[in-house]
Amino acid sequence: MEFKILSHAGLLVKNKSGKSLICDPWLVGSSYWRSWWNYPPVSKELINSLQPDFIYLTHIHWDHFHGDSLKKFRPNIPIIVPKGNYTRMKDDLFYLGYNNIIELKHGERLQIDDHFSITSYQFWMFLDSALLIECDGVKLLNLNDSKHMGLTLKQIVRKHQPIDFVFRSHSSANERLSYEIVDEPGAPVDDLERYIKEFAQTARATRAKYAIPFASNHCHLHKDSFHFNQYIQHPLLVEDYFKQHQIQSPQVKVMVSGDSWSSASGFTISDKDWFTNRTTLLADYLQQQSESLEKFYLQENRAEIDKQVVVEYFEKFSATLPFFVRRYFKNVHFTYVLSAGNTTKYIYHININQGRVVELPPDTPLDHTNYPIQIHTTAFIFLRGIEFKIFSHMCIGKRVFYKVTAKQKKYMEALNLVFNAYEYDLLPIRRLFTWRSVESWSMRWREVILYMQLAKDKLVYGKLDIDKYLK
């Protein structure tokens, strides 16, 4: 068998008969409104060589579920997705024109070919999944972005040990770095080293032979997010962490797009260093993509919003919230500050409890006494969040910036959780009690126990002790 790293989170696995599977093929262009780009870029030769028999998509985030990349493949190709409580992955694939969708339940195995099978393992309330691939006697655990731990990770390890390769993310893909605590300037908003630490802990818990830093090989090129490149935890930092902590098992291997391993010849890894001189290489990459970026800047600058669209969205959103959630937000207002070009074009002052939207003049002085929760992004992105029901994607792309007071930060974090619940069909609450949802969660009972254990840690000790669930 052979596997090859394709991209940020793209993985190709091929058996000795030539049957092949691709996971999460983001191969072309950018993601999250020109913010995320594959780093290193994927060669055209590699893209053109791909003729997969199956595709597996771990979850719906655009750096994994990438429409433009999927269009490279035939409409009838079997696309496999996790079967969770909601149908959006399947629905969106049908919308894109794909008609051969296979849903796998938690722990369900699919035989692809002789001596070639996959098993899907779901995790997290907002559906993510890992994939255990067995191919010609070699076992690969593609954890990707999923944060399996405790009983859920033990289920995988016990059933499939020994595992040869484990792949996992190792850098931030959330909104924490996008916060500015205005009344506590310089206050830390994230612990960057913890991502690498958790990578190492998880890799060791799987008892795999090799650990591949994965699903974090990207960079930021948009002018609004380029500065976030300094915070990306790249694979050399993972390798250094293993050396500093004398972790010899599993053995960490830095692999980027085009690198491979086969049963016959072992590792084939390019000698090009993409990380030591990353600043210069990023400047070159930015120059190469300047035309595409400039066209997009012009598109963003032309964005126009009809207030009625905003009113209707938040009225509908508020109506799905249970009374205790609306009560939590009763006296809280969120101020969306939306730019087009270099100027503020729209300001919407929103009460989630009532679903009430008030439009303020663009030149309104935004002091943090009267407006303690400000969400700064572009009119273009805000409108896309409404049109495609993807507010939960906005923060991932590092194109939205939160200016909040320390006291009000918890409400912004809570709103982002509620957006996720709304977009992942956990709201209205009655959707939790559909047969599909009950079946999914009953199969994932270990995860439910894990959440109860984490809740106990928070109540008793005042913090979440993740370390003990990764031993």
Automatic annotation (TrEMBL):
InterPro entries: Cnh, RibonucZ/Hydroxyglut_hydro. Gene3D superfamilies: Ribonuclease Z/Hydroxyacylglutathione hydrolase-like. Pfam families: Lactamase_B_3. It comes from the Bacteria. Belongs to the CMP-Neu5Ac hydroxylase family. This is MBL fold metallo-hydrolase.
